[in-house]
Design goal:
Number of strands: 43
Helix content: 25-40%
Shape: globular
Strand content: 15-25%
Structural class: alpha+beta
Largest sheet: 6 strands, mixed
Length: 1289
């Protein structure tokens, strides 16, 4: 853990008397805590002595013997004002070893201009714990010629031998940047202790350079450090942005954004922050007035608390398993600081408690120590400080000692099991129903009928066992304990209202007997009760304690009500009869009213409940569409629901007592139920809604709820993409339901899918890759890329490997490119957009490859061998391991899905590695086709080869077969991965034929004729063989052309042609039928002209002697055979059809040959109808469809690339460079090609709601949720509306 966290104030702040200022100025103590909070380190910079002790023994620290640091290590400690100063840090206790860091900080270390100035130094000491339990003398482990703020961080690491090692990292923060040292003793590879120097992000770096030339930046940097996180806060253009960096990975984990006008900030102080232990919540304050809570996973604000004008926020820390927030504030005009305990998940009257110390109370002192600047230190759930005498105090212990908990004895009558107080409420049976036991308060009640008799309408019959008891003397409040629920009903002048409901959350089956509640203990009092029950579920015995009221106010009761909604939904199918169905609907409405009333009165607490408990998930399961819609859209700008992937791990009230199984079948059934519940628990709220949609493809409440959630998320994502954090993984699941597929297609026409702009207070140079940033243009082409989220490393000691060569190549290439093509627009900040879908292109398969490349390190030659001789296989056939992006590609067959910026950016980002793989296959195919052409050329030419030339030809034949088998095996693996159903497509089949045909032709005709003596000299070629080789070569050329789809421009032309054919094939078929009609007529007319006396036209020739110009008496007779297809093309139908086709080019062979009026008539009709009409129609038709075909070609190209990416993602490819992890978000520059069409469609659908298509088809009762029902007379719920700022009127 760190040292002082809020020691930058110029004012002295304490819970004790202000007279401590003088003594505080003389103190020289430093305090540090190990990151896990197990050990404490104190250091006296005057004596250079320190102590180490376990946290649980901190009160005994004064009894510990100090260790002496060699004074020669720090010879010059004379101070000039605040400098030099000491900073300390302590590591975790690992393998009987602990490390200590002591940094001697000079003023120059904290100045941006450090030239020709003396620097401080940092020394790492290593101490070993001996068998006696005490530590050995400190051993100097490392010394570094720089001073600064020091911290330790630990991270697990797995070696190639699968040995788990804990890396210990020491960080030094100063004006130059962050210096990291990694070391350890157990394994030699961690002993290198190489220094890594990381630069700060650009905006912070510029700030340090401009503002901290004279004044040191110690306080600015210290405010950025928390635990193993580095947090940067920036303000620009009315936006406050907080960047959260993880020091273990040196990578940015999240960005938080808020508008300053939202919280009306007028003053700023030192930022205060804290992160919950479960790493889900971040507390932030600008140091004045208010505190904000963010959800780290999505970066969204979930709560805020304003403590008043000019109130100074000094410190904040999550305590008690992150359930409470400890704050220290300084209220104006008050001498002493105030401790604040904020119960985050409570609506009780004292959910925020204040403690102000008394004058002279020295039980805990918080004061600024100008001497050491490290007088205090935080640990998980507490805050420690060291006084002038070296004593360590805990603020939480001080607070607990001041707390006085008021205990009340609520229960005065014990009913089950009975005791001496039971006589006060005698046991009776309801009239006409002996199964219903009731405990009355009135001695002689006039009405023997209870307020409620059966409030479990799913239970068949009314003779089941249940117990009731009245909770007030007037008997207007009734507790009823049924089979699986516990309910409280209250009757007043306005009617009967449900006050509370609890359920045991069991899923019913045909035999529901085991799930029945068994009462172990029941106590009741005035408007209170305490109940202990047990039940058996899947052979496991559970128990629970239910009571009223709860210490957290209404929170637990509302949580139980939400669980009851889900409980009732599971029993909906057990309802019998309209009467019971009506009761069931009424009960659901009453529960929803209970929840709605709480949300209406306590919206801020509901938002925090939604983060910690699965309340929204249970409401969704319950199917209350009105309640879901109110939470999402009912309160403007309240944002009552925040999406989340990680669930808050919390202890359940159910306790496993014992496990019993009647037989093996019950055991298997139990395991299945448990697995199903685990699946539901691991789902997001959106996925839960999808899973509960009706399987019979009908519109139900859950279909509408899915629409509500998608509309809510997409609307809010326009200003913060964190709202879509759960949408990415849920999108592929929408295709599993016929009705939800509509949502999957329409959601991409929401404005947010254009992408969110990179915030202005994040420098674009921090995220854009070097090679892209240096080659930007004014009219930027569309580029998608993985952002740089890691801090830039300034390391002069590079390893000479492929990655280093690649980086050098890019650097040199871009510099040359800039010299040749100077770009004046490069200095203008570009517009960078972020694809709004979280982990959209992230695959489990890629994560597995990253793990494997760390464990299995192959040499360059082995990779080259595998690449050349082993066709790559697939890592998984399961689609569940693929990225959401690829799942959508495989589920959606409509190319319009790619007509949006998000999908095009994802394709652009993923395309490069996939293209490179298929280009390698292209090279293999070119070699394969070249070998076939060369060998067949020798074969057809009958070339005689001898000696080495013949051997070369033989090797060429072997290489041809190797390439053919390689490519064939690639197709087989693809077939095995996709399955026949997905593999059988035109292009896949053509690929397969183009590979098999040359192998067959080569084997049957060519290689069988090869001789080692003379090659192909003795070959006898035939017409059939030549034709087979000719058509095979044509097929190879077509395959060669189709491979050009890997290149953008040629691919576009190919798809334009294919789209034109696709759009015009019906017209072409019609033209073919017309031609066939005329051809058939000509065939009938001229098939046997001798039988019909059809004469051919005679040609007259005049021959003259060229010298004398006299006629020559010669007779020329034309040899014409009407039955020969060469003389008469109409002798068979096929030739007649072919000759008719040539009419389109102006060749009328029938009319030129035969002298017959019928032929002339048919020719005239064909020329008018086919040539003049249809041909010109086709030309006009082609002109009309070209523009549309061009647009569709872009979508078809994206489809081809997407399917190639889909195939490549599961591939076990060879990577010569280390594989980079997939980004959480994809970034892009420029404008996608689909933007104009997509924007036009978006504008048309701007006012359409996703859910409107289905919402009108379901019925919902809304008359219950009215303003009059916000307040219930004589309610058990004690609402203090004024305290929470709510006006019930």
């Amino acid at each position: 853990m760190s040292e002082g966290m809020f020691n930058t104030s110029t004012d002295t702040e304490s819970f004790a008397s202000s007279t401590n200022k003088k003594t505080a100025a003389k103190t020289c103590w430093h305090l540090a805590i190990s990151p896990d909070g197990e050990y404490i380190f104190t250091f006296n910079n005057n004596t250079l002595q320190f102590k180490i002790i376990e946290m649980k023994r901190k009160d005994e620290i004064s009894e510990e013997e100090p260790f002496q640091v060699d004074k020669n290590d720090f010879p010059n400690i004379e101070k000039d004002n605040d400098y030099p100063m000491f900073q300390t840090a302590l590591s975790n206790f690992v393998e009987q070893i602990i490390y200590i860091a002591i940094s001697f900080v000079e003023k120059s270390d904290m100045l941006s201009n450090q030239k020709n100035q003396q620097h401080g130094k940092t020394i790492i000491y290593r101490m070993v714990k001996e068998e006696s339990g005490s530590f050995s003398k400190p051993n100097k482990y490392g010394e570094y010629k720089r001073g600064g703020i020091v911290r330790f961080a630990h991270s697990p690491f797995t070696t190639k031998e699968s040995i788990n090692v804990e890396k210990i990292r020491c960080f030094i923060f100063n004006a130059e940047g962050i210096f990291r040292y990694t070391f350890g003793d157990k394994y030699p590879f961690l002993k290198k202790n190489i220094e890594k120097h990381f630069s700060y992000p650009k905006l912070l770096k510029d700030e340090l350079i401009k503002l901290y030339n004279i004044n040191p930046c110690f306080e600015r940097i210290e405010s950025c450090i928390f635990d193993h996180y580095f947090v940067i806060e920036q303000y620009k253009q009315g936006i406050q942005a907080i960047q959260l960096f993880n020091l273990i990975t040196m990578e940015m984990e999240q960005t938080f954004q808020e508008r300053l006008d939202k919280h009306f900030y007028k003053k700023f102080s030192k930022p205060i922050l804290s992160i919950s232990r479960n790493r889900l919540l971040l507390m932030f304050s600008n140091g004045i007035d208010s505190v904000l809570l963010f959800y780290i996973e999505s970066g969204l604000e979930i709560a805020s608390k304003d403590f008043g004008k000019d109130v100074k926020i000094i410190f904040g820390e999550f305590i008690k398993n992150d359930k409470e927030l400890l704050l220290i504030i300084k209220i104006p005009k008050k001498k002493l600081a105030t401790i604040v305990i904020w119960s985050l998940f409570s609506s009780a009257k004292n959910f925020i408690q204040f403690y102000e110390g008394d004058e002279g109370d020295e039980s805990f002192v918080v004061t600024k120590n100008l001497e050491s600047r490290s007088y205090n230190s935080r640990c998980h759930g507490d805050f420690l400080a060291i006084d002038d005498n070296g004593k360590v105090n805990s603020i939480l212990e001080s607070w607990n000692s001041k707390e006085v908990e008021a205990k009340r004895d609520y229960f005065y009558c014990k009913l089950i099991p009975s005791d001496k107080t039971s006589y006060m409420m005698p046991k009776k049976h309801v009239k006409n129903n002996q199964a219903h036991i009731i405990y009355r308060r009135k001695k002689n009640p006039q009405d023997e009928k209870p307020l409620v008799g059966n409030k479990e309408p799913w239970v068949v019959g009314s003779k089941y066992h249940r117990v009731s008891a009245y909770l007030d003397e007037e008997e207007t409040i009734q507790l009823i304990i049924g089979r699986t629920t516990v309910q409280i009903w209250q009757k007043n002048k306005d009617g009967l209202f449900l006050e509370y409901i609890w359920s045991n959350n069991t899923v019913p089956d045909y035999n529901d007997e085991e799930r029945i509640l068994k009462i172990e203990e029941l106590q009741v009092g005035e408007r209170t009760f305490n109940l202990k029950v047990t039940w058996i579920y899947n052979g496991i015995k559970y128990k629970a304690e239910i009571k009223w009221p709860y210490q957290d106010g209404h929170v637990t009761a509302v949580k139980h009500a939400c669980e009851a909604l889900a409980h009732l939904n599971y029993r909906r199918f057990k309802l019998v009869g309209d009467k019971n169905r009506h009761k069931f609907v009424k009960l659901v409405n009453m529960i929803s009213l209970l929840i709605w009333r709480f949300i209406k009165k306590r919206p801020e607490i509901w938002k925090l409940m939604d983060i910690r408990y699965d309340v929204m998930g249970n409401i969704i399961i319950g199917g209350s569409t009105f309640l879901v819609k109110y939470i999402l859209f009912g309160e403007k700008n309240m944002y009552l629901h925040v999406p989340q992937i990680k669930r808050w791990e919390d202890d359940t009230i159910y306790i496993k007592v014992e496990e019993k199984y009647r037989n093996a079948e019950d055991k298997q059934e139990s395991q299945d139920d448990v697995n199903e519940q685990e699946k539901i628990h691991g789902l997001t709220d959106l996925q839960i809604a999808i899973r509960f949609c009706s399987e019979d493809r009908r519109i139900d409440r859950h279909v509408v709820i899915v629409g509500y959630l998608l509309e809510y998320y997409t609307n809010n994502a326009v200003w913060n993409i964190g709202w879509l954090i759960t949408v990415s993984k849920a999108l592929p699941e929408l295709y599993g339901h016929k009705l939800l597929g509509y949502y999957a297609r329409e959601i991409f026409y929401k404005e947010c899918f254009m992408g969110s702009e990179l915030p202005h207070n994040i420098d674009y140079r921090d995220v854009i890759p070097y090679e892209i940033e240096k080659r930007r243009q004014k009219k930027q082409s569309f580029i998608a890329f993985s952002p740089n989220t890691k801090l830039v490393i300034n390391d002069s000691s590079h390893r000479f490997n492929l990655r280093y060569l690649r980086e050098k190549y890019i650097m040199i290439y871009t510099k040359i490119y800039q010299q040749i093509f100077p770009n004046p627009f490069r200095k203008i900040p570009p517009t960078i957009r972020i694809v709004p879908l979280y982990e959209f292109a992230t695959s489990i398969i890629v994560e597995k490859q990253l793990e494997d490349q760390m464990k299995i390190r192959r040499s360059f030659l082995s990779k080259l061998f595998l690449l050349s001789f082993v066709p790559r296989g697939y890592l998984s056939r399961s689609t569940s391991k693929l990225s959401p992006f690829v799942k959508i590609i495989r589920a959606e067959k409509d190319n319009d899905i790619f007509n949006n910026p998000t999908m095009e950016a994802a394709i652009k980002y993923r395309w490069i590695p996939a293209r490179n793989y298929f280009l390698r296959l292209y090279v293999f195919f070119i070699l394969y086709a070249t070998c076939f052409a060369v060998i067949c050329g020798f074969y057809l030419s009958h070339v005689e080869l001898t000696g080495n030339l013949n051997n070369i030809l033989f090797v060429l034949i072997i290489y041809f077969y190797y390439l053919g088998i390689f490519l064939l095996f690639v197709e087989y693996r693809q077939l095995n991965h996709l399955g026949w159903k997905d593999y059988i497509q035109f292009f896949n089949l053509f690929d397969l034929i183009a590979i098999i045909s040359p192998l067959v032709v080569m084997t049957i005709f060519v290689t069988s004729s090869f001789k080692f003596s003379n090659g192909f000299a003795d070959v006898v070629t035939t017409q059939n063989k030549t034709v087979a080789i000719s058509f095979t070569m044509l097929m190879l050329w077509f395959e060669f052309i189709l491979y050009l789809r890997l290149l953008s421009e040629t691919a576009r032309y190919i798809y334009i042609i294919l789209n034109i054919i696709k759009r015009s094939y019906i017209f072409l078929l019609f033209m073919f039928l017309v031609l066939a009609a005329f051809a058939h007529s000509m065939f009938i007319l001229l098939q046997h002209p001798t039988y019909t006396n059809v004469t051919q036209k005679s040609d007259t020739f005049s021959l003259k002697n060229s010298k004398t110009n006299e006629p020559i008496d010669v007779t020329i007779t034309r040899d014409f055979d009407p039955n020969n297809r060469l003389d008469n093309p109409n002798s068979n139908f096929l030739d007649s059809l072919i000759s008719s086709y040539f009419w389109l080019s102006g060749t009328y062979i029938q009319n030129d040959t035969w002298d017959f009026w019928a032929v002339e008539t048919l020719t005239l009709l064909a020329s008018i109808f086919v040539v003049t009409v249809l041909q010109n129609m086709f030309i006009a038709f082609m002109g009309g469809i070209y523009s549309e075909a061009s647009t569709q070609a872009n979508n078809a190209l994206l489809r081809f690339r997407a399917e190639s990416i889909s195939d490549y993602e599961a591939l076990d490819d060879i990577h010569f460079l280390p594989l980079d992890p997939d980004p959480k978000y994809i970034f892009y520059l420029g404008r996608p090609s689909c933007f104009n069409n997509w924007k036009e469609t978006c504008d048309k659908k701007k006012n359409e709601k996703l859910y409107s298509v289905y919402e009108e088809r379901i019925a919902e009762s809304k008359d219950v949720f009215i303003k009059e029902n916000l307040k219930v007379r004589n309610s058990l719920w004690d609402w203090d509306d004024k305290e929470f700022g709510y006006d019930s009127s």
